[in-house]
Design goal:
alpha+beta, single chain, Aminopeptidase, 5-stranded mixed sheet
C-alpha cells in the first residue's frame, strides 16, 4: 500500500486522505530541524493499518530533504524507538530516544 503524503506549509502539517478521512502529523520548523508535534488519524480509519506507514513515509521524505527530526509526539517517538537503526541518523546531535 502506498500513500501520497503532502506537506501543507500553511497548516504546518504532513497529511494524506484515505476515503475522505484525514491523517495528519503536525510540525514546527527551525532551521533544518523539524519538530514532529502531534499525530492524528480520523477515528473511522484503523490506526494499526495506517499509523506506522504514514510516519515512515513522512520520515523518508524528511530524510531525502536532509532535515533533522525531533519527535516530540509520543507516537512518532515510539516509531523511532522501534526502528532505531533505520532512522537514528535523522536525530540532531545530542538527541537520543
Amino acid at each position: 500500500m502506498s500513500l501520497e503524503i503532502k506537506k501543507n506549509d500553511f497548516l504546518r502539517q504532513f497529511e494524506t486522505k484515505i476515503e475522505d478521512c484525514l491523517i495528519k502529523l503536525e510540525y514546527s520548523e527551525q532551521a533544518k530541524n523539524i519538530f514532529l508535534t502531534r499525530f492524528e488519524i480520523h477515528k473511522s480509519l484503523p490506526a494499526e493499518k495506517y499509523q506506522d506507514l504514514f510516519i515512515k513515509l513522512v520520515l523518508d521524505q524528511l530524510a531525502e530533504e536532509e532535515h533533522k527530526v525531533v519527535p516530540t509526539c509520543p507516537k512518532v517517538a515510539a516509531f523511532f524507538k522501534k526502528h532505531r537503526a533505520e532512522y537514528k541518523h535523522l536525530l540532531p546531535a545530542g538527541i537520543t530516544l
